[in-house]
Amino acid sequence: MIGERIRDLRLSKGWSITELAGKAQVAKSYLSNIERDIQKNPSIHMLERVADALEVSVDVILQGPAEPKEQLNEEWLELVREAMDSGVTKQQFREYLEFTKWKLQSK
After folding, report:
1. I need a surface site. Which of 8, 28, 49, 66 has the fewest CB within 10 A?
2. Are 28 and 21 spatial neighbours (Cβ–Cβ below 8 Å)?
3. pTM for the whole thing?
4. pLDDT, tens only, 48-80
5. Would the keyword DNA-binding turn up in this protein's UniProt record (predicted)?
6. Measured distance CA(20)–CA(82) in Å, rounded
């Protein structure tokens, strides 16, 4: 999976394996073996170099990109505004959320 992520990131930049190896200052053959899943356990030092060259974090190489979080839509924003306008404090809102979670878990 790591090799596949590196290859996908490399290709998304339009780079050859030779270009990435040069930018990351790692051996082309080693990088090729990682991408082809022959080398399954690359060193963290090599991953850091490749991540820096690709301008991503090592976490992206190890785990993949983070799932985008849902954006607040206008309805949610209106609910927050209404709660603020009615005088609900952040602490009261947190307590309500905790109570709701507890209630759902105890069913």
Report:
1. 66
2. yes
3. 0.60
4. 999 999 999 999 999 876 666 666 788 888 888
5. yes
6. 52
